[in-house]
Amino acid sequence: MDAIADGMYADQMTPFMTLSIETGMRKSEILSITKDEISRTKRGWSVTKKDTKNGHRRVVYLSSRAVQAVQPLYDGIKAKPDNTPLFSISSHTVENWFVRARDKAGLKDLRLHDLRHEAVSRLADKGLSVGAIANQSGHKSMQTLLRYVNASEKDIRAKLEQDI
């Protein structure tokens, strides 16, 4: 994240990366978030995606860390029309800056899509049910979802020792 924070588009890339890791949303879903898709309630913030890859409407709940990251972007579009995009960067810009930051950090094998895998694994580590993880990440197939979850030996052993 430090390599991203140093870049020219840090004000956009830092929230993008945070949303990616915190929610497991696809790049296209994040970049297409509009003001009217963001709900702010006493319980917290969420993003309602009406047109997803799987063709289903989905509500993605935002962690406090994700809210903190997108708040400045939201504040910048608050007075604008409902269909105003939250992000003003293109998919191409995201890819280019990710590659630069990745290379700067010495992580040549890391792909942008790996953040989605990381997000799903983190949601599992937090103890969310498989259904909740599928909702957050937009996976329709449990088989596909399970390919994203990377359970560690340490985590498995710790869970096996827990009393119910």
Automatic annotation (TrEMBL):
Residues 1-161 form the Tyr recombinase domain. GO terms for molecular function: DNA binding. InterPro entries: DNA_brk_join_enz (IPR011010), Integrase-like_cat_sf (IPR013762), Integrase_catalytic (IPR002104), Tyrosine_recombinase_XerCD (IPR050090). One of its GO terms (biological process) is DNA recombination. Pfam families: Phage_integrase. Keywords: DNA integration, DNA recombination. This is Tyr recombinase domain-containing protein. The lineage of its organism: Bacteria, Pseudomonadati, Pseudomonadota, Alphaproteobacteria, Acetobacterales.
